[in-house]
Amino acid sequence: MKILIAYFTMGGRTKKTAEAIASVLTNYEVSYFPVELTGKFIKKLKILDKFEKKDFSSLETELNTLDAASYDLIIFGMPTYGNKPPQIFDEIVARMGNLSGKRAIVFNTARFTGGKTRDYMKAKVEEAGAQVIDKSKFRKVLWIGVKNAIKFGKRINERQE
Ligand SMILES: Cc1cc2nc3c(=O)[nH]c(=O)nc-3n(C[C@H](O)[C@H](O)[C@H](O)COP(=O)(O)O)c2cc1C
After folding, report:
1. 48 near 37, Cβ under 8 Å?
2. Total domain count for the chain?
3. Pocket lined around ligand 1, Cβ cut-off 6 Å
4. Residue 144 · residue 111 · CB < 8 Å
5. Ligand 1 atom with minimal separation from the 139 CA
6. Residue 6 and residue 92: Cα distance in Å, rounded?
7. What is the CATH number of the domain that holds 54?
8. Residues 99-125: pLDDT tens digits?
9. Of 33, 72, 106, 147, which is the most exposed, with the fewest CB atoms less than 10 Å away?
10. pLDDT tens-digit profile of 55-81?
11. Which atom belonging to ligand 1 lies closest to the Cα atom of 17?
């Protein structure tokens, strides 16, 4: 069984959460589609700004490879920006080939809120024709640990269907 985890991270919290979930997916072979902004904060903000304006030209090559065909389950992980996932989420969903009919799981990280973003993600993935079988939000104001992510990962790993 194969899982693809597609995530975006600017500060590392979503990556940390995705990797904690993956660490207990012993029944699966896990692959990632990571979109990780690195470098100085100002540089990251500039790239984020482009993405928010729907300019994904720097990511075109990677986005063209997005295909759900060989996976049994797709997990989408995003941070929360102004009560929504960043624009890259919509782009990843739109650009992912063969998502229709697949099983999917969505999660988001947040500091204060997060419920709306998680529900937005679920609706968007369902619009693309996938079946969202689980969802979670990981909300911590300061330090984000891995305890809840591991719990969530175990729940995914032990699903029967
Ligand atoms: C521009 C911006 C907007 C944010 N908006 C929200 C928000 O509306 N609600 C919230 O709970 N957290 C908000 N946050 C906090 C992030 O969602 C949170 O820190 C997230 O875990 C960051 O993930 P990352 O480290 O993977 O980038 C915001 C952070 C940034 C940088």
Report:
1. yes
2. 1
3. 9-15, 79-83, 109-114
4. no
5. 11
6. 8
7. 3.40.50.360
8. 999 999 999 999 998 789 999 999 999
9. 147
10. 999 999 999 999 999 999 999 999 999
11. 26
